[in-house]
From TrEMBL:
The keyword Oxidoreductase applies. Keywords: Oxidoreductase. It comes from Pseudomonas spirodelae. It is an enzyme of class 1 (oxidoreductase). Belongs to the NAD(P)H dehydrogenase (quinone) family. This is NAD(P)H-dependent oxidoreductase. GO terms for molecular function: oxidoreductase activity.
Length: 206
């Protein structure tokens, strides 16, 4: 099992909220990592327990080879990820928007882990389903090169709808806040520092 899939919990978790942060970028270091660390610092300052999964350091095949027709054995890191999701009360997803949507590594993570019987369960042959991850909330910290207004009104925010509605919402996870940090490419150091402070403030209010 990779270090990325280990819990990293403190021995005494206390009464704080159980938070799992999932860094959905293949990069080893990035603005997403810095935002995630700032959020975690803010959350821990309020006594919450924050664990992290860094998808770029985990060992798993992101391709669901046969869809749902056949069972694909879960790698140890994905089994551990499912355990961490069950442990968590609140999830934090930190990722960039690429080509209008979430990175392939993050999409593959959902394909492989948010499986029938874990994230949802259809009722017999009907179109109704049970949302098996209900009771959890989520914050999304999203970086983009596209200005937020353009992404929303011109592109229709496809990546945001995919995350909040067709993945998390479908599984019963209620998105509480979606914070955009954009546009990244022309941003100044001063702007990025303000984003880090904003991410920390979001963690304080976790």
């Amino acid at each position: 099992m990779s270090d990325a899939a280990k819990s990293g919990a403190t021995p005494l978790e206390g009464d704080g909220k159980r938070i799992l942060m999932i860094l959905g970028t293949p990069k080893n270091s990035s603005l997403c990592h810095a935002l995630g660390e700032a959020y975690a610092q803010g959350a821990r300052s309020k006594g919450h327990v924050v664990r992290q999964l860094k998808l770029g350091e985990m060992n798993y095949d992101p391709v669901l080879r046969d869809g749902y027709e056949q069972s694909q054995q879960l790698e140890p890191d994905l089994l551990e990820a499912q355990r961490q999701i069950h442990w968590a009360e609140h999830l934090v997803f930190v990722y960039p928007v690429w080509w209008g949507g979430i990175p392939a590594l993050l999409k593959g993570f959902f394909d492989r882990t948010f499986l029938p019987g874990f994230a949802f369960k259809y009722r017999n042959r009907s179109q109704r389903w049970d949302k098996l991850l209900s009771g959890r909330t989520a914050d999304l910290l999203v970086t983009m090169d596209t200005p937020p207004w353009y992404f929303r009104w011109i592109y229709g925010a496809p990546g945001h709808r995919q995350m909040t509605r067709t993945i998390l919402g479908f599984s019963g996870i209620k998105t509480r806040r979606l914070a955009e940090f954009a546009p990244v490419r022309p941003s100044s150091e001063e702007q990025r520092q303000s984003w880090l402070r904003r991410a920390e403030a979001l963690g304080v209010r976790a």
